[in-house]
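User: Can you predict the 3D structure for this chain?
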Amino acid sequence: MDDLKLCDSEYRFMLLVWEAAPVRSGELVRLASDRLGWKKSTCYTVLKKLAGRGFVKNEQAVVSSLIPREEVLKYESETVVDRNF
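Assistant: Here is the predicted structure, written as structure tokens:
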């Protein structure tokens, strides 16, 4: 079930989405710049990638999460346990 796997940068970006959603894409770019040091192009590249994988939707410049944070955390916890035991 690797479809819930996020790399570190994607996870940090998703934290912003989960915190602010629904959020206008321009505001999300500002948050990513302030908190992650990202450029606008980086933000939109990651946003497009996450939308393509079904983590977020971006409709009329408003970004919303499609997968709850708890579901991703549960997956990550199970992965760590499986890997170590």
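The first strand starts at residue 23 and ends at 24. Helices lie at 8-20, 25-36, 40-52, 69-84.
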